């Protein structure tokens, strides 16, 4: 079952913001919530983040070890496939580049796997080069569970379903493998500027 919060009927962007709003999107100042099931609440002393798959070795961090990794805080716009966009959101997280540092692999794809069984696939190139983080704070505060806390993938240049909530790790793959929404007909890549919402777009 899909659950949603109020806020999906955003206002049209002001002219000054129009260049930052992809086609078919509306600006919102809210932070709508859309989930494919109930919100997981994993105790932090049981939480781990793992990189596995087509890599020379599996690596894993506890919550304390994860928070000790170098983090960065940045401001970015986000765009949901349900047609809302939110500008100037502020996140803190660990770059995927940091998590992959020192590992040997030739994989071209990644699948994010999460509490609750959710997955999403992303070309590895879209997670590297400082393009994606595992975010653990939003707007200066710990990331709330309804927004994917304690940590979520953040890939802001793609539709927001690619920024998987409640992430627990990344599986590196030599071949592509559709994730949860991709198997239900969402676009395999999800570029908001190309309106890649559904398969065939």
TrEMBL record:
Tell me where the signal peptide lies.
none
Q: Where is the Oxidoreductase molybdopterin-binding domain?
A: 37-181
For this protein, the record's InterPro entries field holds:
OxRdtase_Mopterin-bd_dom, OxRdtase_Mopterin-bd_sf
Region: Disordered, residue numbers = 1-24
Residue spans making up a coiled coil are none
Any single Pfam family the record assigns to this protein: Oxidored_molyb
Record protein name field: Sulfite oxidase-like oxidoreductase
Q: Which organism is it from?
A: Paractinoplanes rhizophilus
User: What lineage, starting at the top, does this entry show?
Assistant: Bacteria, Bacillati, Actinomycetota, Actinomycetes, Micromonosporales
């Amino acid at each position: 079952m899909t659950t949603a919060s109020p806020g999906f009927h955003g206002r049209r962007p002001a002219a000054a913001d129009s260049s930052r709003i992809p086609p078919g999107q509306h600006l919102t100042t809210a932070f709508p919530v859309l989930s494919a099931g109930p919100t997981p609440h994993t105790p932090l002393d049981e939480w781990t983040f793992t990189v596995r798959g087509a890599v020379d070795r599996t690596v894993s961090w506890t919550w304390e070890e994860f928070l000790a990794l170098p983090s960065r805080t940045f401001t970015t716009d986000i765009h949901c496939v349900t047609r809302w966009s939110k500008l100037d959101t502020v996140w803190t997280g660990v770059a995927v580049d940091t998590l992959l540092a020192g590992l040997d692999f030739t994989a071209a794809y990644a699948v994010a796997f999460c509490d609750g069984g959710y997955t999403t696939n992303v070309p590895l190139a879209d997670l590297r080069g400082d393009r994606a983080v595992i975010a653990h704070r939003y707007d200066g505060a710990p990331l709330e569970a309804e927004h994917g806390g304690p940590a979520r993938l953040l890939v802001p240049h793609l539709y927001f379903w690619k920024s998987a909530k409640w992430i627990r790790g990344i599986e590196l793959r030599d071949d592509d493998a559709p994730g949860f929404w991709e198997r239900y007909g969402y676009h395999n890549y999800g570029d908001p500027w190309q309106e890649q919402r559904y398969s065939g777009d």
